Amino acid sequence: MARAINSEIKAGRGSPHGGIFLDIASRRTPEYIRKRLPSMYHQFKELADVDITAEPMEIGPTCHYVMGGVEVDPDSAAARGSIEGLFAAGEVSGGMHGSNRLGGNSLSDLLVFGRRRAGVGAAEYATKIGERPKVAQSDVDEAVTEALAPFTRDSGENPFALQAELQQNMNDLVGLIRTADELEQAIKRLQELAARVHNAAATGGRAYNPSWHLALDLRNMLLVSECAAKAALMRQESRGGHTRDDFPKMDPVWRKVNLICKLDESGVQVVKQDIPEIPTRLLDLFEIDELHKYMTDEELTRHRDGGSLSDTTAASEGGAVNGVRRETARLARRRRGW
Amino acid sequence: MSEEIERLSYDVVVVGAGGAGLSAAIAARQAGKRVAIVCKSLFGKAHTVMAEGGAAAAMGNVNPNDNWEVHFRDTMRGGKFLNHWRMAEVHAKEAPDRIWELETYGALFDRTPEGKISQRNFGGHEYPRLAHVGDRTGLELIRTMQQKIVSLQQEDKRDHGSYESHIRVFAEATITRLLTDGNKIAGVFGYQRKTGEFFCLDAPAVVLAAGGIGKSFKVTSNSWEYTGDGHAMALLAGATLINMECIQFHPTGMVWPPSVRGILVTESVRGDGGVLKNSEGKRFMFNYVPEVFKAVRDHRGRGRPLVRGPGQQPASPGAAAP
Amino acid sequence: MGYDAKLRVWRGDDEGGELKDFTVEVNEGEVVLDVIHRLQATQAPDLAVRWNCKAGKCGSCSAEVNGRPRLMCMTRMNTFTEQETVTVTPLRTFPVVRDLVTDVSFNYEKALEMPAFQPPAELKPGEYRMAQVDVERSQEFRKCIECFLCQNTCHVVRDHDENKPAFSGPRMFIRAAELDMHPLDAAENRKEFAQESQGLGMCNITKCCTEVCPEGIHITDNAIIPMKERVVDRKYDPLVWLGSKIFKRAGA
User: Fold this and answer.
1) What SUPFAM superfamilies does this protein map onto (chain C) (predicted)?
2) If contacts are CB pairs under 8 Å, which of residues 5-24 in chain C contact chain A?
């Protein structure tokens, strides 16, 4: 369905505001709709005076949640990379939800990784660090200069207009369904926008000034957009919250790969990194025929059913070492001509 | 710089006051640390309040067959196995304790007939698993933790003479930079929205709990705060980001009028007879049906025929080692 | 159809300000907050407005629209005629920060004084058992999104700053009621605290708070009046007080 909606919009057959129509009004009686969808009927009526019993709705793909985020150590929630003392939890962290989050798992994610992991992890780190790192005055001065810059750009651009352009770009080109052409276009446009974002101007004073706030936020929005677009271009498959029209299938080889974004002088770099290997005890919670969908044959040799009879028996007696099992399984599979 | 900047010192600074930030702040304070919480909105107004469905935790209150292993499986399937297995495992194992903990802070979840926390079904979860409070579960989480923080501040007032001796909330304040000393975190720099004045918090440990990036997209269910601050500042400080290509889109959110833009339309509209039409008034889904079938076939095609050795028993999930 | 609306918005800070007139485009189905945002994006980039979810769930965008305390995201423009001038001003009960943003710290200070939930000592996490019918009474009050419209409209403090130290306001009364009715709260003096320290007695039940509540919480009928009644009970009849606590435990 998502793909069909996307294709219609891109083919120019969308609704006036870039969506398509969802019509129940012409198909069911007002009484039926009000009875079946009471809260929706009332919500749209109250918020927008949209009467879903009388007119079609204009709907389209809506950005809801980002699975990606700060790469963390699963047990301490400490951020990976070249920095120490940084922790992350909740939507800003990545890895927990893989390529697609289940509804309900985000609230529990906040609790588990916020409390047990990040809060405790940060406290433990603060205890054992010994001498406290020092903030350099020059860094503070630099931060002040950066923060005040939007006030110094007399002929700068309206940050609200820049934000709208950025949002349109991401919506059109890095949205629900992606293609290499569009992603390349998006990255190019983001680079053009970057220069203009550096020229975003705030008008007025410093007290509660939304134009200033937005001018500063744009730096962040631009960076994360670049990450999303570049990583989306690199992953040549479709999986969960990443759908490529030019690579419509899920590919077990790509499952073994995490895409990591880091920043250097030339901007956002995306590199491939091996995904941590799932231990056999957890792999064995699944039926092997389900796992074929996700994993390569080689990986599945570690599954309880991934090898020969003797190998499975040995495992159940607790006498097999993983490496031995793997080798036995590999040989067994070769014998069967897999 | 001639400007006078307020400088304060903490053990842990938490950036963000949604569910994750407040959880982290509570834990760090309970570990005896002096904690600053910095949030862009007023205290208690985080995006977490938008979460309606519930919080998934395999407590087994409604179906006793539920346990962490089943929850783990569902999470991995949902994430198409791109999840970090250890995070999914820790999450599934610890979620029930975290929900029960909220009850000791005063949370009031909906109940089962036996008086336990009720759990509801939700897409992708094998058993009824979501602890909920009507359709305002996120609000209940935020309010509960907000009030727990107040109670900790009351203890601090009693024991140390000040509400803010161990937890101070910097509401309506934005962090613009993480400050470092070599490769170590040294503090944060930001401004107060109200006055526009800058402040600097020295701290050896910073917890980012700054939420998502939805505001980079035109149509989003996310609030204005979701400008990717945490993601971007982590990158700038030398941290790495993972899976940034994976973004959840709901195919049917309202795009117009603006007052409802981003509000999600449930699947049940189509179940109840709603149809999709293009600007020509045509039901375009018919054109795509063959594609859909093809997609399903391709999907199945990747599975291999099950080959078992002689005498091998079909495995059941129950037989799996814990 | 779109039209040009006449908007009058208060602009200024704690030192003073004035109503400014604007003409802003309005489209079908829009709410006041949409129009304020358009004004901000096209004519007044530094217009201060507090908002967050834009879906009536967070309680940030409280203001007075044509003098009535409202959430801007929940006030449709088509509730006004196209000729009508729509006036948007900040909440009157709280000090202005800038434009439509007020300093609502009064409410957070009162919250700090409110004794917290006291968990039952004899129960471990996971052992809590409560009946749905019992939690529902408190759940009604926990729907509160802290928009502070009730605090703003309450005449005890609206235009009466002198009452603020002794009066916590409707938001805190429903918090007191919520804890009082919580089946497992171990604290036993919620009503007395409300009466003696929160200024419950100053409320004379004009129901203004209930009328403005966007969540439809029956603040007066379900929280304030029962609290007032029970304060009277307890003051005169210790057995009633004791009985109510024992009954509550047994039924929990």
Assistant:
1) 2Fe-2S ferredoxin-like, alpha-helical ferredoxin
2) 13
